[in-house]
Amino acid sequence: MRKVVSSGQPTIKEIAKRLNISVSTVSRALHDHHSIGLRTKARVQQLAAELGYERNQTAIFFQQGKTFTIGILLPELSEAFFSSAISGIEDTAYSNNYTVLLGQSHDDEAREKQIIQSFKQHRVDGCIVSIGKNTRNYDHFEMLRQAKIPVVFFDRIPDLPNIHAVSCNLESGTVQAVDFLLKKGHRCIGMINGPEQLVASKERAAGYIRALGKHRLKYDPELIVNADLTAAGTAAAMQHLLKLKRKVTAVVTFNDYVAMDAVQYALKQKLEINKDITFVSYANTPVSSYTAFPPAASVEQFPYEQGQAATNMLLDILNGTLALNDYQQRIMESQLVLHT
Amino acid sequence: MRKVVSSGQPTIKEIAKRLNISVSTVSRALHDHHSIGLRTKARVQQLAAELGYERNQTAIFFQQGKTFTIGILLPELSEAFFSSAISGIEDTAYSNNYTVLLGQSHDDEAREKQIIQSFKQHRVDGCIVSIGKNTRNYDHFEMLRQAKIPVVFFDRIPDLPNIHAVSCNLESGTVQAVDFLLKKGHRCIGMINGPEQLVASKERAAGYIRALGKHRLKYDPELIVNADLTAAGTAAAMQHLLKLKRKVTAVVTFNDYVAMDAVQYALKQKLEINKDITFVSYANTPVSSYTAFPPAASVEQFPYEQGQAATNMLLDILNGTLALNDYQQRIMESQLVLHT
DNA sequence: GTTAACCACGCAAGCGTTTGCGTAATTGGC
DNA sequence: GCCAATTACGCAAACGCTTGCGTGGTTAAC
User: Would you say the CATH fold of B169-300 matches that of B67-168+303-322?
Assistant: First the structure.
């Protein structure tokens, strides 16, 4: 047999040999099993300490068919919103003795599929995922379902039946945002929304429409424009809004980055921020308060807490507290925060 | 024997039984081994596809004593600098078929030690770590060294001999920064530095002193103050600098967050930014350009590229291209970027 | 004194995969 | 037609650990 490179790490076999007892006794002694004599336990535990013994987790993972690992797949790790979420996920996973495998899709569907594949091969116990902007096909998640690997979707959740999900109630947050603008006297409010297929976009639009309804105002579809979240797309959207006959005096933007791009565009058009035009956004950067022209208000989405909630839901499934097919959608409340 | 919950995943044993051949043949067929007949190969591969066979990585990890996993330990996942770095690390790990285990220390030494322990138990092939602000004891890294688990330190590197490390040449960047201020006519330049024991702090101080030396100016130790990077600490540091007899007209701050805190303090003292006082900082947030009072210039540290470089160095060690005891310090050039 | 209970430990299987070696059967060279 | 090389596969061990079951030996109960 090929002599595998021994990492030098002592094994229970080693301990057993040195103490002239069987490996099973060593194993049980280390687990404080009741059927092992106190003397033996002590001897084993002392020798283990001396040798610096450490259980080989890979062996246990393999033997138990469980890895105490969760895969987390996000579109972009460097975005503030997601990195806060990761922080929340890692914190609660850590305190439950789980570790975190990481992958970023860069909004690329093929890469998303590959990472899910890799997670599956790594036999993760479960996944937390926020899908990419361009993902249209959900076969990879169907695979996970068949493999009985639980998935909790989070923030960017796909439009699928029977899923576990944690997200923010953007509809109500949007209602608050539009309410705020209406109360400040704005009557022609534009919205730069995200890609149409995202639930997040649908919710924003729904909130917008509901807020108008509450105030018995009629809704003009021209005022909501779906953009692609790039600077160019935002500029195009702004151009569209500013060309309309009714003068747009306020804009709700999909997120802070879009807001900042929109502000740039408005400034180029010689518009005065907060006078000619007011912006309200959805918070996803911690430094927006330091920004030159911050949005007048923004809808806080609590990414850290969302990450915690998603992880807790996943852990509940893994513990058996929550049944795998008891699909839950945890919807957290968003909150409008004024900056002026 | 206890019947382990079969995940329903097909194994090579399954395939072997169905085809009436041995598992070794199946294994070799799936690896395209030359000693397997074409017909057999085809039959195996087809059945594997039909059954949706997927190798059990945990078994392979265990058997090979290698996990194709690297642990990455950072102080704070939600900080822009680190999340960019993660992005770089994940990208290059991914394209080399490695996956990433994540941990954040929150600058807590005990937690840092626990995470390293967990990484070790998970039998990661190597680690990339940026140490916490408060870490004084390096026993956990000594453990890794003894276990022959390679570690590449990155950005916040400990003051230890014989380590692999990737960092930015903050000294030269600082020279550029101070040069820039001197050329703009500033003669009394303060520096809000980080905790003394950090190499990053020492480099900044050294650069500051070297720049003054280049211009034949004498160095006043009062002008460099070590702070703890909190808002309160920064305020105290600013207070100290502004109380000095010689009027400080420019300040080099440890990072953008410190800069923003310092700006806040200066504003409270009714100072006019970029007139009464000018700030230069070290870039670690992508949105500093949107900030109301951005630093006049900042030293870019290229976190994404640093992450890539650290990962590449680690992979070189794992591949055997670079010897484990051939300690390398890769120092990347920082670059002063003007914002005005 | 017999039975039952319990204590302390060993045996061995099994998790899924890889791989060195052994061994038939086939082929080719002369 | 004989030996060697090649082809095509099987055997079994090994990775480290857990755990159901078996087995002596001691103690307690009636």
Answer: yes
Mean pLDDT of chain B: 90
B42's enclosing H/E stretch is helix B38-51
A124 touches chain B (CB under 8 A): no
What nucleotide is nearest A11 when CA is compared to C1'?
A: D16
CATH no. of B67-168+303-322: 3.40.50.2300
Least CB–CB distance from B57: residue in A56, A90, A121: A121
Consecutive 10-residue runs of chain A (340 residues): their mean pLDDT? 55 92 93 89 91 92 92 92 92 92 94 93 94 92 92 91 92 94 95 88 94 93 93 94 95 90 90 94 69 82 94 94 93 85
Token readout for B176 is 């550029």
Does the CB of B5 fall within 7 Å of any strand D atom? no
Closest nucleotide (C1' vs CA) to B56 is C16
CATH superfamily ID and name for A169-300 = Response regulator (3.40.50.2300)
pLDDT value at position B24?
A: 93
Gap from B49 CA to D27 C1', in Å? 61
Provide the residue count of chain A: 340
Buried b (16+ CB within 10 A) or exposed e, B205-235: bebbbbbbeeeeeeeeeebbbbbebeeebbb
| CATH no. for A66-168+303-331 | 3.40.50.2300
User: What percentage of chain B carries pLDDT values higher than 70?
Assistant: 95
Say which amino acid occupies A276. D
B320 φ/ψ sector (left φ>0, alpha ψ -120 to 50, else beta): left
**For A122, nearest residue in chain B (alpha carbons):** B57
Q: What is the pLDDT of residue B255?
A: 87
CB atoms within 10 A of CB B49: 9
